[in-house]
Specification:
Distance between the termini: 22 Å
Number of strands: 18
Number of helices: 16
Low-confidence stretches: none
Largest sheet: 11 strands, mixed
Length: 504
């Protein structure tokens, strides 16, 4: 699914109007019908409804929804804010249509506004401002938003919560943004809806399909996309009946320090469960018994040090190398990590302490080979950058820039993990859930991606498929055992079912 900018969304509307063809007022009516149906699925006609409409087309949508709810026997009060005495053409038409049915309490505000009392059982339909907004709300509109947010009424926002900018909210004012319980977004999710710090405003998000031009959607290039299950079905590397382990890839994991053997175990188990023919684990000597008993399928390669990774190793025989889970940040380990990165010719995945080591030695970032894969969570990424990001959008922009500058691949982990590629493109992953916010989850992802690389998937394929499988297995685990009790090993336990789903 493509993610369009605010200007592209406007172009999509216009292209649909010109090429379907359909009148803009009829397209608004189509949208209002879909929005009204979605509202009626959630709230009955016994729910009092207060509609707040702005002067633009978002307000026109809200007025049309108010009319349709009233005709369906909902008790509706409408407040149209026309403080500059100028409505968009379609908003003006829907104003008159609403007045003509004579079934709503209608108030047009041109100067002073006495806000209605919002009871706990009231539903507020927020149609003040849409994706055309390009600066924070101020003045009376900001006060109105604060008033609604302080009430106990439920809020459903049309397309996007009023005050929330569709992309960059770094310098927005949080208290001036409507906090919706449900956002009915039209046709496509907006970029802000994929960013963690904006979730507090959107509530649940439901995409409303109003049949905007599929031709425009298909032919228009975008920087951001959300990958979907159909992207993978039929594209897995299936095993030939006569294959053998030597043809299934040979992976090396450099993981674990004394006291952190669990990270190495999780990464190794995930790697083995992701189809690779053979996994070798390089780990300190004191991890021998733990690794041998926990993962008997793995080949152990013991470091000459008892407790740390201390020296780089030969990697010519391997098809992919994963470095970092539970590795520790000892200075000898740091030197060994950069040495390993320099001497490894096959694809490399860097995670956890490998990233923290790079953060502590910023100059080494410039020595990373093109095509290396980094899998930081937000705080790890901020440490790599040397400073905290002001917003999720800023962090994403920095990750995108770093991927282009270093010609590397970065998976910025989280809900809707963002895969940033050297060409500037970003792919968001839709699978996964909050139950996966648990220690070891990232180690599992490292194991999966390392295995896929060793199996012969390209870096782009391995990262995208790895993210999707990781989240899908987590979703399957959460469905079976719940989010609260989910641990990283549960993700590994459901990996086979995740693979089977994509194979089927």
């Amino acid at each position: 699914m493509k993610i369009f900018t605010a200007s592209q969304l406007h172009e999509l509307d216009q292209y649909t109007i010109e090429n379907e063809p359909v009148k803009s007022i009829d397209l608004m009516e189509r949208a209002a019908k879909a929005l009204t149906a979605a509202i009626m699925e959630e709230w009955t006609e016994h729910t009092p409804v207060v509609v707040l409409a702005g002067p633009g087309n978002n307000g026109g949508d809200a007025l049309a929804v108010a009319r349709m709810l009233a005709l369906a026997n909902y008790k509706v009060s409408v407040y149209l804010f026309n403080i500059h005495n100028h409505l968009s053409e379609d908003c003006s038409v829907n104003k008159q249509r609403l007045i003509d049915i004579k079934r709503v309490q209608f108030t047009e505000i041109t100067l002073n506004f006495e806000p209605p009392e919002l009871q706990p059982g009231t539903l507020v339909v927020d149609g003040l401002f849409g994706t055309g907004l390009n600066k924070p709300l101020m003045g009376g509109f900001a006060s109105l938003v604060k008033y609604v947010n302080q009430s106990q009424a439920k809020v459903v926002s049309i397309d996007i919560p009023s005050g929330l900018l569709s992309e960059d909210n770094t310098f927005n004012i949080g208290s001036h943004i409507m906090r919706a319980d449900l956002t009915l977004t039209i046709q496509q999710k907006k970029l802000a809806m994929l960013l963690a710090d904006c979730q507090q405003y959107t509530g649940r998000i439901k995409v409303i399909d109003i049949r905007l031009s599929p031709e425009y959607i298909r032919k228009t290039s975008v920087q951001y996309v959300i990958q979907e299950e159909n992207d993978f079905i039929g594209h897995l590397r299936l095993r030939d009946d006569f294959t053998h382990k030597g043809a299934m890839g040979n992976a090396l994991l450099i993981a674990g320090s004394y006291g952190m053997a669990g990270a190495a175990v999780l990464a190794t188990k995930a790697c083995l469960r992701s189809g690779v023919g053979k996994v070798t684990v390089h780990t300190p000597r004191r991890n021998y018994d733990i690794m041998q008993t926990s993962v008997p399928e793995a080949v152990l390669q013991m470091d000459h040090e008892e407790t740390i990774f201390s020296d780089s190793v030969e990697s010519e025989d391997f098809d992919a190398v994963g470095i970092g889970p539970g590795l520790g940040q000892n200075e000898n380990t740091a030197i060994a990590v950069i040495g390993q990165i320099r001497r490894t010719k096959c694809p490399v995945v860097l995670d956890a302490d490998a990233l923290n080591i790079l953060a502590n030695h910023q100059a080494w970032l410039q020595q990373l080979p093109p095509g290396v894969i980094l899998t930081p969570h937000p705080k790890e990424f901020d440490r790599l950058m040397g400073s905290a990001s002001g917003s999720c959008y800023e962090r994403l922009a920095r990750a995108r820039h770093m991927a282009e500058h270093l010609q590397c691949y970065i998976i910025l982990k989280g809900h809707y993990s963002a895969f940033c590629m050297p060409n500037g493109q970003v792919v968001f992953n839709p699978t996964g859930n909050s139950g996966m916010a648990t220690a070891g989850s990232g180690d599992v992802l490292t194991g999966i991606i390392t295995a896929l690389l060793a199996r012969g998937y390209s870096k782009t394929e391995a990262c995208q498929l790895g993210m999707y499988l990781h989240g899908l297995a987590g979703d399957m685990a959460a469905k079976k055992i719940g989010k609260e009790s989910l641990v990283a090993s549960d993700i590994i336990r459901f990996l086979p079912k995740a693979f089977m789903r994509l194979e089927d």
